[in-house]
Design goal:
By secondary structure, this protein is an all-alpha fold. Helices cover 67% and strands 0% of the residues. It has one domain: Up-down Bundle (Four Helix Bundle (Hemerythrin (Met), subunit A)). The chain has eleven helices and no strands. It comes from Actinomadura rubrisoli. This is DUF5941 domain-containing protein.
């Protein structure tokens, strides 16, 4: 019989920030190659601006610039994935990355004629995953690392969508990602909460913890 999920004290702020980035295998590999020495915020801000420019450039008859945005973002932000994220305003990095990913999926999807429900469902699945990660880590219920790797990371998901767009398979990519990630994140979350002993002693005062 499977026992309850072992709980540990809430992880330090810096560790949580790195987790909230939701980097995948490629981003983590770049961070290890860089040795964790690059500050994360400057590259992330530039990546957000570059994404906006490339999306705007790809809104016409030639969408190729928009499909290249994930590679640019990865090169700008991936090398900082293993940085300690201990700067005073490094907490801005995860929400900026979320904005890049969600914005890219939404703008590209609508511009390329992907069905609106598919776009909304995929973004909703990702939003659930990120909210669940924040809520659980603050209570010491650490998601398994394999879930983040299997979820491809923000860079993997953006790259899949970009390659699908180049191949003319964008609607299929949105549908496949929504189904796959929905099952992955949903089942893992439900299983983890069920194994906590029906929530016994799980809830904590988040405001008190942050203080």
């Amino acid at each position: 019989m499977t026992g309850p999920v072992p709980r540990r004290p809430a992880p330090p702020r810096q560790e949580r920030l790195r987790t909230y980035r939701d980097d995948g295998p490629v981003g983590i590999a770049l961070g290890r190659l860089a040795g964790g020495g690059l500050p994360p915020l400057p590259g992330t801000v530039v990546a957000a601006l570059a994404t906006a420019v490339l999306l705007a450039a790809g809104m016409g008859a030639r969408p190729t610039p928009a499909f290249g945005a994930p590679v640019v973002v990865l090169l700008l932000t991936g090398p900082a994935s293993t940085h300690p994220h201990g700067g005073r305003i490094d907490w801005l990095v995860p929400p900026i990355i979320r904005g890049i990913e969600y914005g890219y999926l939404a703008v590209l999807g609508f511009a390329q004629g992907v069905s609106a429900p598919l776009i909304y469902v995929l973004i909703a699945v990702l939003a659930f995953h990120h909210y669940d990660t924040v809520y659980r880590t603050r209570q010491g219920l650490w998601p398994r690392e394999r879930v983040f790797l299997a979820g491809l990371g923000w860079e993997g998901r953006m790259l899949v969508v970009a390659f699908a767009g180049l191949s003319g398979l964008l609607p299929f990519a949105f549908a496949a990602l929504a189904a796959y990630l929905g099952v992955l994140f949903g089942s893992e979350s439900v299983t983890a909460w069920a194994r906590t002993g029906r929530g016994s002693g799980v809830l904590v005062d988040l405001e008190e913890e942050e203080a």
